[in-house]
Each structure stands twice: as structure tokens, then as C-alpha cells.
């Protein structure tokens, strides 16, 4: 088999670690492994880590660069391949065992991961791709500096536009950039910068978890005043925030800092995510500039 050897690891790098945070993530991963064939719900998985379903999915995706659903599919198909090549179990029985309603659906998914059909795999034709169970591993070494501050803010309102996105098959990852393109093209971003008079300066991107499989995404600005036609209002609750500096062009600089926050800062900080909306704060500078300054605001407890 080709693929990962041994156990795949989520690496949390820092000199001091919060084993409770690491242990919570591992508990959720272990629960997934223990219930691979039971089709556990996102709420059940997230509960093991004391996360909301939305924030567990987001944390998992940032750390592993794949969705929870994709991890479960890869693991099931890895186990299916192992059983296929080491037993005489009928392919139709394996299809049902590993969560597929028809042999055809199983064969299609199997071929997508392994590059061969179940029948070909049984004849040892071609290579198989194995994805091993994840283990959260603390890697005790230095990391790049991550500049942040802790601030307290009273509740404030965000005026802006919102759109619902499905998290299924990562539809949000394709839809949110298109939403930004539309806001930039129709002049909404210019309006938001003009309206900005609240406690946070800039235009905000805000994720609000609705269900385990859907979010509302807002593009707005902190605003105090009369309602504006065409804009909705979101109240951000009073919070203690960890505010992280982001230096460099979009989207790479922003994605890099998100990864650092979840793989390095949270495991060592002693803080937990408060579960309320996070903010990305953008200026009106050139988004491709190497000197661009942005921020990530995360509510903490």
C-alpha cells in the first residue's frame, strides 16, 4: 500500500503545551475511530472535545487541511481495502458494511481513493492508498513569532450583507471568495468602509455557525447609527478577544496565521475558544501588497 506509514499526526508546536486542549481533540478523533461504521453525527463527535459542531469542524479542517467527512471517508475506504485483500467477504457486503447504499457507489468511491476498482484490488492489481488514524502529537520546538494582544470589548453591531453556505463538500470554500468578489465589484465594500464608525476599524469577514452543516457568512463593518437600506445587522456579544496580527498578501498570509493559531497558540495559551463568531479584519489597502496589515479576532475564555 502507498500513503501514510504508521499513524498520521496533527502536530502542535510550542515549548509549553496545554494537554487538556490536545487531549480534547484526541478524544474526538478516538471517538470517530471507535464509531467509523456507525456514522456518528457531527454533534456527537464535537461533544467529545467540548466544542460546538461548527468550531470543531473548523478547527479540524485548519489543522488537517481536510474536512471531518473526508477523514471518515478516507479511513473507511482504507479499512475496506484492508478487508478486501485479506478476506473472502463479498464486495456487496463490504459496500453495505462501510456505509454505501449500493455496490456501484462503493466502487466509485473506492476507485476515487485507490485508483483501482474493488475487483481489481482483490486481484492485487495496482497500488492502494492507506490513510492511518490521526494522533495529536506535541512537537516541542520553536515556532515563528505570532504577534497578538488580549483585549476586552463591549457588545457592538455589525452592518453588512450575509449569505448562508453549506459546509458539505466544502461548498463554503468555493462560495465565500465569490461573495467577496461580488461585494468588491458592486461597491458594497466602499459603502462599508464609509460607514465604519464602531470599535473595530476596517471591513469584517464573520463566520456564524448555524448548524453542523451550515454557516452564515457576513461581510460587514462595525457601525453605530440608523439602519442602512440593503444591509442587515449582526450583534457581536461582549467578549475577551485574542487579536492576531497578519502581515502579507491575501489569502496566503491569513491562512498561515489561522494555521499557527490552532496548531501552536491554542495548545500552549491556556485559553479556549468562546464559541461566538470570529472576525477577520481587512483594510482598504491593496490585498496583494507584501506590506498588507490585517487582523484575526478570536473570542476566548
Task: Detail the topology: elements first, then pairings.
Layout: E1 2-3, E2 8-13, H1 19-34, H2 42-48, H3 53-64, H4 68-86, H5 91-97, H6 103-114, H7 118-122, E3 129-130, E4 134-139, E5 148-153, E6 156-166, H8 171-185, H9 188-195, E7 203-211, E8 214-222, E9 232-236, E10 239-247, H10 252-269, E11 278-282, E12 293-300
Helix pairs in contact: 1-2, 2-3, 5-6
Describe this structure in words.
The chain has 301 residues and is of the alpha+beta class. It has two domains: 2-139, Homeodomain-like (Arc Repressor Mutant, subunit A, Orthogonal Bundle), CATH 1.10.10.60; 148-300, Regulatory factor, effector binding domain (Multidrug-efflux Transporter 1 Regulator Bmrr, Chain A), CATH 3.20.80.10. The chain is built from ten helices and twelve strands. It has helices spanning 19-34, 42-48, 53-64, 68-86, 91-97, 103-114, 118-122, 171-185, 188-195, 252-269; strands at residues 2-3, 8-13, 129-130, 134-139, 148-153, 156-166, 203-211, 214-222, 232-236, 239-247, 278-282, 293-300. An eight-stranded antiparallel β-sheet has the order 5-10-12-11-7-8-6-9. The chain has a two-stranded parallel ribbon with strand order 1-3. It has a two-stranded parallel sheet with strand order 2-4. Helix 1 packs antiparallel against helix 2 (42-48), helix 2 (42-48) packs across helix 3 and helix 5 (91-97) crosses helix 6.
